[in-house]
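Quick review question:
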């Protein structure tokens, strides 16, 4: 039963990490805002672009090689052409969606996390000595012991020296 709890606890910790939650929120909100963003692109951006040419961004394309145009539809039927209008439309949709997700979901969540972290008590205990510091103290204590002088090592260094002299 303890393994079952530890697996569930690990799964809960995984889910509660900030990156996983941010990704889930981004996917859900991005999917929900797709129709809104598409409406903004069609209703606002396309008419602005339409003031300079075709209202449908998908109609913007460039021919790289000898292309023949269908006289009925006005589209390229032969040759190599780039549909840069479709790419522009997709890029605008992505930028609008990313902006909405960031400014309405991620930014407030990060501010909330910062407030929660600020509420946590600060650990004022001094940091444990590093391995290098302990080794330096042990070295100094051993040199002092060899020379016959007495310097009081720290408790951690004294415990290590005591173990060393017993062997």
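Suggested answer, residue by residue:
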């Amino acid at each position: 039963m303890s393994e079952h709890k530890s697996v569930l606890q690990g799964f809960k910790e995984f889910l509660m990490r900030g990156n996983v939650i941010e990704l889930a929120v981004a996917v859900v909100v991005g999917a929900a805002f797709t129709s809104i963003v598409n409406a903004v692109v069609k209703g606002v951006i396309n008419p602005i672009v339409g003031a300079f040419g075709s209202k449908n961004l998908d109609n913007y394309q460039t021919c790289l090689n000898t292309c023949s145009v269908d006289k009925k539809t006005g589209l390229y039927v032969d040759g190599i052409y780039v549909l840069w209008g479709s790419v522009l439309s997709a890029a605008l949709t992505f930028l609008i969606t990313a902006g909405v997700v960031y400014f309405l979901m991620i930014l407030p969540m990060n501010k909330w996390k910062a407030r929660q972290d600020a509420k946590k008590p600060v650990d004022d205990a001094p940091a444990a000595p590093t391995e290098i510091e302990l080794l330096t103290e042990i070295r100094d204590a051993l040199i002092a012991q060899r020379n016959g002088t007495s310097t009081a090592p720290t408790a951690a260094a004294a415990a290590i020296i005591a173990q060393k002299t017993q062997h």
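Why it works: The chain has a mean pLDDT of 77. The longest helix spans residues 84-119.
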